[in-house]
Amino acid sequence: MTKIDSKIPQGPLAEKWTNYKAHQKLVNPANKRRLDVIVVGTGLAGASAAASLAEMGFNVLNFCIQDSPRRAHSIAAQGGINAAKNYQNDGDSVYRLFYDTIKGGDYRAREANVYRLAEVSNSIIDQCVAQGVPFAREYGGLLDNRSFGGAQVSRTFYARGQTGQQLLLGAYSALSRQIGLGKVKMYTRHEMLDVVVVDGRARGIIARNLITGKIERFSAHAVVVGTGGYANTFFLSTNAMASNGSAAWQCYKKGAYFSNPCMCQIHPTCIPVHGEFQSKLTLMSESLRNDGRIWVPKKKEDAEAIRAGKLKPTQIKEEDRDYYLERRYPAFGNLVPRDVASRAAKERCDAGFGVGNTGLAVYLDFADAINRLGKNVVEQRYGNLFQMYEKIVNDNPYETPMMIFPALHYTMGGLWVDYELMTSVPGLFAIGEANFSDHGANRLGASALMQGLADGYFVLPYTIQNYLADQIQVPRFSTDLPEFKEAEKHINDRINRLMGIKGKRSVDSIHKELGHIMWDFVGMGRDEAGLKSAIEKLRALKKEFWSNVRIPGAAGDLNVELEKALRLADFIELGELIAHDALDREESCGGHFRIEHQTEEGEALRHDDKFAYVSCWQYQGEDKDPVMLKEQLDYEFIVRQQRNYKN
Amino acid sequence: MDKNINITLKVWRQKGPREKGAFETYKLTDVSQGSSFLEMLDILNEQLINDGKEPVVFDHDCREGICGMCSLYINGHPHGPDTSVTTCQLHMRRFNDGDTITIEPWRSAGFPVIRDLMVDRTAYDKIIQAGGFVSVNTGGIPDANAIPIPKKDADLAMDAAACIGCGACAAACKNGSAMLFVSAKVSQLALLPQGKVEAARRAKAMVAKMDELGFGNCTNTRACEMECPKDISVSNIARLNREFIWAKLKD
Amino acid sequence: MWLLNSSIGKKLIMSISGVFLILFLTFHLCMNIAAVFSESAYNMICAFLGSNWYAVAGTLVLAAGFVIHIVYAIILTLENRKARGNDRYAVNVRPKNVEWSSQNMLVLGFIVLGFLVLHFAQFWYKMMFAELMGHHEVELGGQMVGTTEGATFIKYYFSQIWIVIAYLAWYVALWFHLTHGFWSALQTIGWNNTVWFNRWKVVSDVFATVICLGFAFVTIAFYLKSLCGGACC
To answer: Are the C-beta atoms of A136 and A144 separated by less than 8 Å?
Structure first.
């Protein structure tokens, strides 16, 4: 069996990264000019990596599917970014951030990676401020912080409800500077469809120009994938419409391991689904849980009356309300981590206490906060979110409680990477949400921005040099090599096959069906029978897709339906891998909850003796079951405990 | 209360940048007022695909009003008749049963049509590339709290930084001017000590690039500000003018 | 040269020349007001200005101001039309809070200019220009009048109702042009921020109103005087 080598440096936890940097190989400036790096994606990770690599002197080719690098979905992150600055003097430290992140991830992340993440978190804040990111400040002119789920300190830096936007625009401005200087060649509206491997190393990509439909080849000394997560496998998610898992999936098919695909984060505070035509779900920032109280009616008949429209939530008396998070988790109350809050909402709705016309919603109530702080303060803190809610739902959250329900939001799983962020294919790197690395089984709020920028600004630009240092003698590659030709032919065949089906169903209609299968059987609560039937259903859906999809227009032209079809083909296969992984992991941890494995109180029950590993799935070929390798997670520095948010 | 409505759509269809476009009329029945405008277009496209026709091409991505990808000039307004929202946040309850809705692409020389309602906005990226940044490399920077910034300045900078680069300002402007977009970035960075160092160079470079790309001259009609989904103020344009004129006078 | 090449430079030329013309208007109004209260004083001013070198020089500068303002208005408008692209919007709606005048400054400008030609033919051509040509008397309504007797000119023209109406219409166009122009000039120069935004708006409206009411007052006053044959005041 292949041994998984995560290349974690020796030595005490706090010195690993310092030691690594002191001893890694570097590339001298003259040689950097001769090396090309492809970066796919322009989100927080991609843009910051492309900019930093270009600043160092590498030639960078950067790709994005949108019309501008500034559109990447990192832009939609609302709440904030964590860092261990301890500006609030509330006892925060690098170690505490590391510990909270490991614990929040249900002890399924690597110690060394997470410690490094906590270590560089402070530099990220410095970097962003230097770029002109307008973080919130106190009257004294210093930076302000807020608290977030899963932590007992205030370590979250924020820019109103638009932190992701401001951080991304910071990275985008650094990237733009390098594009202006000619060090980055930017390809917008280009979608990566394959990675090209020459003699066992990643040497380029095949991309489709989305305007002309032309298939184009690009070569480089290394390829970095920063293409985000695969939450859109579930069709309805908080991800952007074009967010997809295809780039990562192609890497998987070319030999990169795919890790922990079943770890999907379901965010507790989203606006509930309201109809079959719905195209996506909108997130309401987790920060709302700082002041909002979550409840459902205590009596079933009240819940039924509300669902029938006969009763208004404001008519339910205080003693008839069940503030179930405060009841179950007195210590953290409404600020429990996302996975816990989501499951608790599902539990109440499944038990028949849900509200809204579908019964799939719970209340997030600000009446107390408004009484305590005044409407003005609430408006200052959450005004933009309330306005957003009102525009969508047509209900005034200052007067009636908001309705929320969990929705797919983030995927902790992704391409397996070692300590250097390199996948199992030499020369192929994965950063940001696209890799599996730092969040374990559950990501804490305000940690995604931290990880994306840590990878892009402060980790990859170092570690990639360790790989590139022995590539300086390698001349630039021709894209006429047989490997490129073959990869291009493979893509063209696939596209022609899709265009030739001329079936009856639109891409979206099949994607919606995929979403239903995923949500019903591979969603918040999973069991063996459901997962097995999901695999059957997904195989059938794959057949249906490949025999009955209808794609109008031509292949060699702008064709949005073809773009969606190519992504959906991969989502269906990805869905199956998620189910396989969920089936294998016979425990509950973080974002993965197996109904068979819970405590008497209904909390997630981990089995550290059997499942303290990272699953690394290896592609075996079309329609063959994948094989799983295990990377054992040996904890040297902390002791695993049952996560406890009760006291 | 939301109900279902029947509507008529007049949609601009154009094969490519150099081809002639024209309006096509479509009818949609039983559209829920609770659906978003783009979901309504999804329904239209589903209908077109089922009829064996080519779907309408339009830009969109995050569908929560922050990425700036969606556009559309709806009934004479960029991002439609609602205020302070993008097209993706516009809901069908803004329309009534029997309404005819006219949907056009951004029309500006700076934003050529790619197809149907999709336009090319790379001009905005080029303006940012000319100077919309602070010239710092990764690493080697002072502590984030080393320079205190008055809350007022930080808030004003954040107001300007809220720009999503959607292009509604240039689309709304009768002069096809990009001044609101340019001024938002110049203002954000000019207000902060980190950006002040190269403020003069930035203002000159960005204005020069904007002029070169063929955007029009601002005549202070304020249409941009009124249609901006993020309520960026034209006082930023005054600041840009100040920065620019001052920079030139100092040369 | 940035003033001529850049968009903001060109706009600056528009605003500076505009402000200059506004100053001239203010001066012109002061003169006219004088005429209402004392015709001899007004005539003294006319005689003082006459065709002296400083008045001629002033006139030339003023003319240059007008020409620059008009030429740049045309250049900017042509550039702006080009920037708009080839296809026009099928549906146009003026957004809330966008003033009609702000989108029609060129049209308003041409209306103002049209009346200006009339005004020149009636006054300047027969006064300063005639004097420059070496005449000291010109024919006005069948009588010979001295070129510096400004008050006589005013009384003659403003006794005719259609001329009065035409001038009043002119002031209305001017008012629209000024309300936007004054504020816009300050915005272009960069003298604006969130606090001064509405203040300047008000100043601009008040100023335009004072100027236009002032001119209208003079016009109407002379018309009323003509009705009562000068006996009533």
So the answer is: yes
Q: What's the number of domains chain A is made of?
A: 1
- Catalytic site includes residue A372: no
Strand arrangement of the beta sheet that strand A222-225 belongs to: A184-187, A59-63, A36-40, A222-225, A428-430
Confidence band for A647, pLDDT divided at 50, 70 and 90: low
* Domain residue limits at C124: 2-227
Mapped to the 3 state alphabet, what secondary structure does C207-225 carry?
A: HHHHHHHHHHHHHHHHHHH
**A129:B194 CB<8 A:** yes
* pLDDT at position A521 over 60: yes
Per CATH, the homologous superfamily of domain B4-114 is Beta-grasp domain (3.10.20.30)
The number of folded domains in chain C is 1
Q: Which chain B residues contact residue A76 at CB under 8 A?
A: 62, 64, 66-67
Q: Would you say residue A66 lies in a domain?
A: no
**Cβ-based contacts under 8 A for chains A and B:** 216
Please, which pLDDT band fits residue A643 given cuts at 50, 70 and 90? confident
Cβ burial of B49 (10 Å; 0-12, 13-18, 19+) is buried
Residue ranges of alpha helices (H) inside A111-220 are 111-130, 163-180
On chain A, the residues whose CB falls within 8 A of the CB of B88 are none
Residue A371 in domain: yes
pLDDT tens for each residue of A345-371: 999 999 999 999 889 999 999 999 999
DSSP C154: H
Tokens 């599902």, residue located: A346
Q: Would you call C6 an interface residue with chain B, using a CB distance cutoff of 8 Å?
A: yes
CA Rg value for chain B: 20
pLDDT digits (tens, 9 = 90+) for A398-450: 999 999 999 999 999 999 999 999 999 999 999 999 999 899 999 998 999 99
In the numeric block, which tokens belong to residue B238? 């005054």
Contact call for B243 and C193, based on CB within 8 A: no
Strand partners, A294: A364
Question: Distance from B75 to chain C by nearest Cα, in Å?
Answer: 6
The residue among A579, A582, A565 whose CA lies nearest residue A533 is: A579
pLDDT, tens only, B105-116: 999 999 999 999
For residue A631, the cross-strand partners are: A614
Nearest Cα to Cα of residue A234 among A522, A443, A445: A522
Which ipTM was obtained for this model? 0.98
| Strand ranges, E, within C104-220 | 137-140, 143-146
Q: Which pTM value belongs to this model? A: 0.96
Q: Where are the domains of chain B?
A: 4-114, 121-250
CB contact under 8 A, B64 and A283: yes
Closest-CA distance, B144 to chain C, in angstroms, reads 28
What would you report as the CA-atom Rg of chain A, rounded to the nearest whole angstrom? 24
Please state which CATH number belongs to domain B121-250: 1.10.1060.10
Supply the Cα-derived Rg of chain C in whole angstroms. 20
Asked if residue A359 is part of any domain, the answer here is yes
pLDDT tens, A465-489? 999 999 999 999 899 999 999 999 9
Among A410, A336, A395, A329, CA closest to A363? A395
In a domain, A523, yes or no: no
Query: Which residue from C182, C56, C67, C163 is spatially nearest to C115, judged by alpha carbons?
Result: C163
Mention every residue, 6+ apart, whose C-beta is less than 8 A from residue C2.
Answer: B248, C9
Whether C and B touch, i.e. at least 3 CB pairs below 8 A, reads as yes
Over residues B21-45, the pLDDT tens digits come to 999 999 999 999 999 999 999 999 9
Q: What average pLDDT score do residues C37-46 get?
A: 90
Q: What is the CATH number of the domain that holds A359?
A: 3.90.700.10
Instruction: Provide the CATH number for the domain around residue C18.
Output: 1.20.1300.10
- CB nearest to C102's CB, from B111, B208, B222: B222
Contacts of B53 in chain A (CB under 8 A): 552
Residue B113 CA to residue A620 CA, distance in Å, equals: 44
